[in-house]
Design goal:
Blueprint (H helix, E strand, L loop, with lengths): L1 E2 L8 E7 L3 H9 L7 E7 L6 E5 L2 E5 L1 H4 L2 E3 L1
Antiparallel strand pairs: 1-6, 2-3, 2-6, 3-4, 4-5
């Protein structure tokens, strides 16, 4: 089971599911990261936090803790 935190720069991936509960999961889904959506990993900061992705036509930065909740294929 691989997460968005482990994705490499330049990789095109699909979201399988979001693990977690409550407001954190809802916040991730409100940003447009939902099951089946295609994501492109644009950049990763030198220390790995944050991760910059392109999802649904816009750029988004996620903390490592949030990226770890997104399971990818």
């Amino acid at each position: 089971m691989r997460t968005l935190k482990e994705a490499r720069v330049g990789e095109h991936i699909s979201v399988l599911k979001i693990i977690g509960e409550g407001p954190v999961k809802r916040r991730i889904m409100d940003m447009g990261i939902t099951k089946g959506v295609k994501v492109f990993v644009r950049k990763v900061a030198p220390l790995g936090d944050p991760v910059e992705i392109t999802v649904r036509g816009y750029e988004l930065s996620l903390r490592k803790a949030d990226a770890q909740m997104v399971v990818i294929e």
